[in-house]
Amino acid sequence: MASLLSSNPTLASNPSYSFSQAPQNAAAGNREHAFYPYTDNGGSTLGITGNDFAILAGDTRSTSGYSINTRYSPKVFRIGGDDETGEGAHIILSVVGYAADGTALKERLNAIVKMYKYQHGKRMSVKACAQRLATILYGKRFFPYYVTAILGGLDEDGKGALYSYDPVGSYEREQCRAAGAAASLIMPFLDNQVNFKNQYSPGSGVGHDLEARQVTPLPFHEVEQLVRDAFTSATERHIEVGDGLQMLVITKDGIEEKYFPLKRD
Amino acid sequence: MTSIGTGYDLQNSVFSPDGRNFQVEYAVKAVENGGTCIGIRCKDGVVLAVEKIINSKLLKPGANKKIATVDRNVGIVSSGLIPDGRHFVSRARDEAASWRSTYKAPIPLAALAGRLGGYVQAYTLYSSVRPFGVTAIVGGWDSEGELGVDGQVGTGPTVGAGGKIAGTKAGGPALYMIEPSGSYWGYYGAATGKGRQTAKSELEKLDLSSGSLSLEAGVKEAARIIYVAHEDSKDKEFELEMSWISSMDGPTKGRHQEVPKDILEEAERLAKKAMEGDDEEETTAPEGETMEE
Amino acid sequence: MNHLPQAWGRPRDNVYGTYDASYLQPRLPQTHTQSPIVTGTSVLAVKFKDGIVIAADNLASYGSLARFTDVKRLRPFNSRSIVGIGGDVSDMQYLDRLLNSLDVTENYSSTGHSLNAKNLHTYLSKVMYKRRSDINPLWNQMLVAGLDGNDEPFLSSVDLLGTTFSSPTLATGFGAHLAQPLLRKLSDDESKVADFTREKAVEAVRECMKVLFYRDARSLDRYSIAVVTKESGVELKEDEHLEGQSWAFAETIRGYGRTQEV
After folding, report:
1. C81 DSSP assignment
2. What pairs with residue A200 in β-bridges?
3. Which residue in B68, B100, B154 is closest to C68 by CB distance?
4. Do A11 and C23 touch (CB under 8 A)?
5. pTM (predicted TM-score)
6. CB-CB contact of B153 with C89 (8 Å)
7. What is the pLDDT of residues B238-286, one digit of tens each?
8. ipTM score of complex
9. Tens digits of per-residue pLDDT, C11-35?
10. Distance between A72 CA and the closest CA of chain C, angstroms
11. What is the DSSP letter of C232?
12. Where are the transmembrane segments (chain A) (predicted)?
């Protein structure tokens, strides 16, 4: 430091910074980018929980602009499974947005959940995994994973657990969440059908006397139908959604995968 | 060694008054007890062979390879300390890769031998290191065909500047042996390890300098020579490992590969047969020991 | 109390004077490839019953100039995979050398199994994603064609952003708009691959190359085509010529400066 000061008369004759965060170089001008490191691969995902299950679903279309890259590109993954097949997994993850980041995120979380098992000799809880995922996302706060993630599993009480995220790791546990291109189409439908928003007990009164309909967890078959209806409708109204619907259902018996065709137009 | 005990053998890089580096000479001792290795430079390829003494019946036959590939067209086999040999091979691979990254083409054998000689020699210069306890035989085939540079996308002009000269000759077989001192020579036939004297005298009988021995015949000779050289330590079982590099139009297409199982077995069969013939002529007492893996 | 958080903890200007940053060199940001220079256009590939067919023309353009007309854009990796590369040609050459050194080091372990097309695609996608994450992309889109670990046909794509996807038919660049719809008509689902023969697949790809030559101004009528099967490995032909062209339709085109009958 002394040599630095002695070589700089301006600084040597004036008090200098007493902390280490002195600017290292003058502020650069705005950086011009011809290369933009992100893209949007379209598609939508959706998660709903019940009393003893969680469903994560996503369409299987991948897009670039108006082009369809492929009609089968899964967005929902098993986390913490034994091998490529994901056998033995107890957590599910959906990612939608920029697919390459989605894949990278999925692989990182998968490796972490597996390492947890090898190092501690027990499965990572969904709650812990949810916090860890937030930490991973926030770790890239200044060059984010451009994805909306939803994490699903069963909590310590065996109840369906669902955590939804923003790209930089802000997260909360919810009953249901839609994400991706058609989130704005699906989410209001879910608010109404899962959380019974704007539903009132008939004849309970008018204005402030209206009694909201009691929210109760839905049975599995109803939830599955809701998911299918949501995607059928989203396919109709959004050009980036379609081709196929992939669903992972997690219960105490494990993870079941389902696939339903969607319109390919 | 008259100067032993005078202290000049205790440190590497130090000369004795009569101009010797004893540490290098001790390294040669390590080599002299290693399994016999030979290399034969044939007219259309190079063959490498090594006698692997089986130290334990628990070793898996065919595993624990001693001949290594460098780039695609070079093979290295060494006698002496096995880990030193591995490090030597690792360096050879790095040199080959570095040559490629600079010149976008495979390293010529002469250049590789030169670089390895220089590397080994450096280990005779410092008191903080010891010399390599290996003598390595480096065999390969410099492509005689026209190889494009790595990453080349087109064929380029056919005439004029950058055009091709018809009928030019390039490439061919190459065989070098590098010693712990770092000195290296090009050979028609090279041998090192325990049975090197026997092997060398057998190699000398082959008239290799005339360039008439074919690769196929070379493989058979190599197998026979290893068997002959093994005679002095026949109480120990051994396994024969062989590799070869042919010309571009030969069986390996200029690549270094293991000699295929059927050809190896045939060569071994002929080697054993030749040995039996020798036994009948030279000794009357039939030997109970058989030479199988 | 200064209410600007930026000023907290710093020497006060009114006591010490403003900070003199003049000694700090204004540093320009580090820049990498901002755009491709010499480029290759579309790559097409189709899966069929027991293999893959892949094609790309032999042109490297310099902007709108057809600069190099003998550029081989299908790069075989080993006996069971091949990579078709579009985009920047110098980046393609870098990738080719990278794959070459990968192949050399892979052969050092004599375990007997080599990288299959699926492994190769995974490797390339990691390379591409790493480079885009360093904001130093390799400006290419590639199709990896070959056989996977079970010797089944494999076809997948990766681009400069590290985006990957797989489909029974794939096309990059202009081909994604012109050829992909035609190819999807023939085989738009994994289930259709089983009844798609080699002859039909090759014919379809050749036909698409023709369509691309008609409509893609950065294309050429000389092209490379390769077929990968379990039986024969990679069969690569690098000097094919488009056959049966018909430019009769050009007579009917109006506009582009052509307004009256000749």
Report:
1. E
2. A212
3. B154
4. yes
5. 0.87
6. yes
7. 999 999 999 999 999 999 999 999 999 999 999 999 988 766 554 444 4
8. 0.85
9. 877 888 887 877 777 677 777 777 8
10. 7
11. T
12. none
